[in-house]
Specification:
- InterPro entries: GAF-like_dom_sf, HTH_MetabolicPath_Reg, Tscrpt_reg_IclR_C, Tscrpt_reg_IclR_N, WH-like_DNA-bd_sf, WH_DNA-bd_sf.
- One of its GO terms (biological process) is negative regulation of DNA-templated transcription.
- This is Putative IclR-family regulatory protein.
- One of its GO terms (molecular function) is DNA-binding transcription factor activity.
- By secondary structure, the protein is α+β, with helices and mostly antiparallel strands.
- It folds into two domains: 75 residues, Arc Repressor Mutant, subunit A, CATH 1.10.10; 170 residues, Beta-Lactamase (2-Layer Sandwich), CATH 3.30.450.
- It contains ten helices and eight strands.
- It has a six-stranded antiparallel β-sheet, sandwiched between helices. Strands 1-2 form a two-stranded antiparallel sheet.
- Helix 5 packs antiparallel against helix 10.
- The longest helix has 20 residues.
- The protein is globular.
- The chain starts with 9 loop residues before the first helix and ends with a helix.
- The N terminus is likely disordered.
């Protein structure tokens, strides 16, 4: 496949750059050109050309002797400048620490971005056995993992169906159990209990729970979640974890202006 990037395709280039940066951010350990090409659908020459230009601007970086590309220092600077407009990490920090300390599990903050959630922050719990499915920068389709279930459950039915149709291919990449029927059943559980449960749908034995966080308009824009091994999410303890998540989610929603 031959791709032409000319003067008339400026918008297309912007979209490709944004897509590529999201893909780079999606893996903690970095990604090779081949991996980024597979993740974005772009050709390897295009990925290499874009990465070279981004590296010259400090937006991506490749450590000496490595073939894995990571986000660059200039993005950190830009993010620090923008952070005052989006102080959610600072607002959520106390809630994440309380959840991790009270439960021993790893606590996470995720944000909704269109049909996806992206993990923004985490605090590790004290329990020595952990689930490593979720990490900062990871993007997941809505309906995959507990945070996406918590957000999706609070959207109108018509929007839920539209998202399920649009994310079918992306969900399948995270395991065959993410069928519309299974997700609809889990969403009903969220609407009944208030919190979401991911019963090991991504990795067997790795469970998660989450509660949605709402903005001033009442939209579910974030989610707080806990992850760990299945025995830690069984029986009466599941209810305790759910109540802890809801308490912190309500507190954070109030701080964001939700009434």
């Amino acid at each position: 496949m031959t791709e032409k990037v000319g003067a008339g395709s400026g918008t297309q280039v912007v979209h490709r750059v944004a897509q590529l940066l999201r893909a780079v951010a999606g893996r903690e350990q970095g990604s090779t050109v081949a991996e980024l090409a597979a993740a974005t659908g772009l050709t390897r020459p295009t990925v290499h050309r874009l990465l070279t230009g981004l590296a010259e601007e400090g937006l991506v970086d490749r450590p000496a002797g490595s073939t894995a590309w990571q986000l660059g220092p200039e993005l950190y600077v830009l993010g620090a400048v923008a952070a005052h407009r989006y102080p959610i990490r600072e607002l959520a920090g106390p809630s994440l620490r309380r959840l991790a300390e009270a439960t021993g599990e790893s606590a996470f903050l995720s944000a909704r971005r269109g049909p996806e959630t992206v993990c923004l922050a985490r605090v590790e719990g004290a329990f020595p056995i952990r689930s490593h499915v979720l990490y900062e920068g990871l993007r997941l389709p809505l309906g995959v993992a507990s945070a996406g279930l918590a957000v999706l459950a609070h959207l109108p039915d018509a929007e839920v169906e539209r998202i399920l149709a649009a994310t079918a291919e992306a969900r399948a990449q995270w395991g065959p159990l993410h069928t519309p029927e299974r997700i609809r059943g889990l969403l009903e559980d969220v609407r009944r209990e208030g919190f979401a449960v991911n019963p090991g749908l991504i990795v067997e034995g790795s469970w998660g729970m989450a509660a949605a966080v709402f903005d001033t308009t009442g939209a579910p824009v974030y989610a707080l979640s806990l992850t760990g091994i299945e025995p830690r999410f069984a029986g009466e303890r599941r209810g305790l974890l759910g109540r802890a998540l809801l308490t912190e989610a309500h507190r954070l929603s109030r701080e964001l202006g939700h009434r």
